[in-house]
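Narrative of activities, Objective 1.

The group set out to show that a structural description can be obtained from nothing but a protein's sequence at a throughput compatible with the screening campaign. Below is one input-output pair from the validation batch, recorded exactly as produced.
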Amino acid sequence: MILVFTARAVCSVPEYAVDEQFNNLDDWEPVTFPKIAKHSAYEIIGTEAGSVLAARSDASASGIRHIKEFNVYAYPVVRWRWKVGKVYARGNVEKKSGDDYPLRVYVMFKYDPEKASVGERIKYGLAKTLYGAYPPKSSLNYIWANLPHAKRIYPSPFTDRSQMIILRAGDENAGKWVEEQVNIVDDYQRAFGMPPPETATIAIMNDSDNTGESSESWMAYIQVLRTE
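Output recorded for this entry:
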């Protein structure tokens, strides 16, 4: 007997869900806030090392969000390269008046009405009526803080649905490119005490509306990966 094996095509999972090198901003959309009229500015600029994202704020706040959703369990790792010009003198992760950062990376987890409680469906339904879309179920907020703090993770002073994770603090590395890599599934479990929702998007923000200060920061790339 002769056994004949037929080759089958193997569908491999792409290594990246997002691989943003900032050649343009075609895959990004603005994120603004109803009560904040002055927005931060985002543009692609050329450098000797290639194009980068420049983020500028001046007593302002707004962000940009990548339009592609991804499965956090298939793609749990986010890495990026960032640089800040300076930190904010009046910044403070524990106070609303200090909740500003020259650069931060959001991971925003999608609200799923089919998995929500009755109370959540009412609350999120009202928000959708007011703003035209559901807000995130929850978010991780990776920040470059002004000073070292006793802990790594703090709840946002505005909402416990957003947890702040301090990756860098102070001016020691200001003006230098710094590489970061995080596992968002692990960090969500630490921050919220439960597994994360399945679907997420990423966003970037430079804001200074609470402190009234100004800064310019940069990002060379940001990627969402399958594995570390």
